[in-house]
Amino acid sequence: MTETAPGAQEFVPSGPPDLDELRAAAAGCQGCHLYQDATQTVFGRGDAGAKLVFVGEQPGDQEDRQGLPFVGPAGHLLRRAVDEAGLPVEHLYITNAVKHFKFKQSGPGKRRIHQSPDRIEITACRPWLVAEFAALRPDVVVVLGATAAKALLGPSFRVTQSRGTVLPWPESAQRPQDFPVEPAKLVATIHPSAVLRADDRQTAYSGLVADLKVAAAALAA
Q1: Cβ partners under 8 Å of residue 201, min gap 6
Q2: Domains in the chain and their CATH numbers?
Q3: What is the DSSP letter of 15?
Q4: Which pLDDT tens digit goes with each residue over 30-69?
Q5: Cβ(13)–Cβ(22) under 8 Å?
Q6: What is the pTM of this model?
C-alpha cells in the first residue's frame, strides 16, 4: 500500500453511527490493499450496548474464514481469561484495529502465515474503529497487543511499559465534532496470541488475567 491509499473514511457512513450500518458498509471497504487477498472484512461483534470493548490486532486465519473476530485459539484463551477476571462476557464487544487478514503463503499447501499490519494499514483502518466507539460509547476499552495500542495511542506506545494501568483516552480516538466519542477508560495488555507463543505460558497468562482485573475494577468504579 502506498501513502496515497484512500483509507477507510470514505467508506464509513455519515450520520449518527449504527453498528449494523457500519458492519454492512465495512463489507465493501477498499480503503487499503488488504481487502484484495482477504476472504472478507471481519467486523466487530458483541453486545450493541456494551460498556466494555476489546480491541485486538487483526483477524487471523480462522477469523478470516468465518467472518468473526477471536474465534481461533487466541479467542478461546481470551474467553477463559475474561471469565477468570470476572468480566461480563455477555456485555462486551470485541473488534480489531485492522479489519482484514494480512498474511503471506508459505510451505506445502501454501499455509497462510500471519503478518503484522504496518503503520499505513493501521491508519487506513482507524476510521472503522473510531466509528465503532462512537456507536457504542463504552466506559472501558481494553487494547490487546502492540498493534491495537499503537492504533489508539500512537507509534511510540509500548505495551510492556504501560500495561495493566488505567490510561487517559487519546484524542486520536475522536470522530469529527459532529459525532464525538466520549472519553473512556483505557487499559493496555498483551494479545492472547502472545500467551500462546510464550516460553512460560502460565506466567504470561497470569499477567493477562491480572491486567483484565484492572479493567474489571475500572468498569465497576
Answers
A1: 195
A2: 9-220 (3.40.470.10)
A3: S
A4: 999 999 999 999 999 999 999 999 999 999 999 999 999 9
A5: yes
A6: 0.92
